[in-house]
Amino acid sequence: MKKKSIKTYILTDCISFTFSAMILSIIGLMQDVMMSIDNVVLLQLFTCTTLIAVLMYFTESIPVESQLAAIFINFIDTSLVILAVGGGVFKWFPWEAIYVGEVVAILTVVFIITTLIITWQNYHLANSINEIIKERQHE
Amino acid sequence: MKIVIEYVAPPFETELTIKCSNPADATTKQIIQNIQNISRDVLGSKDGAIHKFTLAQIFYIESVDEKTFLYLANDIFETDQRLYMWEAQLEHTSFVRISKSTILNTDKLESIRSMLGGKMEATMQNGEKLIISRHYLSAFRKKFGI
Predict the structure, then answer these.
(1) pLDDT attached to residue A71
(2) What is the DSSP letter of B56?
(3) What number is the average pLDDT over the span B26-54?
(4) Are residues A127 and A135 in contact, defined by beta-carbon separation less than 8 angstroms?
(5) Phi, psi of A53 (to 5 degrees)
(6) Measured between alpha carbons, how far is residue B85 from residues B31, B34, B68, B122, B142 in Å?
(7) A29-40 mean pLDDT
(8) DSSP state letter for B18
(9) Distance from B107 to chain A by nearest Cα, in Å?
(10) Taking each helix axis from N to C terminus, what angle separates A2-30 and A39-59, rounded to the nearest 10 degrees?
């Protein structure tokens, strides 16, 4: 069973890395304030997305009843890696209160949007499945 | 594929006959396996006594504290088989893993609803509610051809 979960996290890591690299490239093209996308930055980015996926894999086993608590734990996983590794080790931004605050604010907005999109997608998925269940019951 | 259904008056037991030219055909094998699984007898223990029922009667299978339980409409039985063994045996049936500890019978599903953060809540035909973990959502939707 663990194999299946690890596969899911590897896939999540790959998707996260691809999207992060794309967003970073687009921002870099739009305004020349970001660092250039070289091999080192890409490796740093991959390290961070992998660490987030690994952290999420372990924190997933924490038994939490509340949905909000589960989302908050995922938020902590992401913030911890971005702040400690991205900011602290890779020096993506200065480790000062104002910059840390900005990063946390951006992460919060991204997390809220992501959660809303997933919930909206699942709402439609649930409707489709409920229709199939109804059809089966009428057969 | 031709399907012939013949209704007979009670007390005859339901009987299925499959006529096929190629028993090795994947679809035929799948149909035979599904029918065998549905009519398969399952043993479960309760209060020291062994009870027999069919696989189709099971609503869900849950693992709690390294013990595995079979949940029927209004009864719970313990089984010797571990959850991963059930999962392997029920791969091509209406059963699907929905969390680390639960396998659900989609034939006994009443409805599902979306929850915040990617999880779903399944309501069974007996009113019980189960959580579908987001990591098992992909396998769950495949059971419905989505």
Answers:
(1) 83
(2) G
(3) 84
(4) no
(5) -60, -40
(6) 21, 17, 11, 23, 21
(7) 65
(8) -
(9) 8
(10) 140
Nearest CA to B60 among B46, B52, B48, B70?
B70
Going edge to edge, which strands form the sheet with B67-71? B49-54, B41-46, B76-79, B67-71, B60-64, B102-105, B95-99
Nearest-angstrom CA–CA distance, A79 and A103 = 8
Crossing angle of the two packed helices A67-81 and A97-138, in degrees rounded to 10: 140
pLDDT level of residue A3 (50, 70, 90 thresholds): very low
Picking from B84, B135, B141, the nearest residue to A8 by CB comes out as: B135
Residue B86: which pLDDT band, with cuts at 50, 70 and 90?
very high
Chain B residues within 8 A of A67 when measuring between CB atoms: 115-117, 119
| Start-to-end CA span in chain A (Å) | 34
Question: Which one, of A125, A134, A132, A67, lies nearest residue B133 by Cα?
Answer: A67
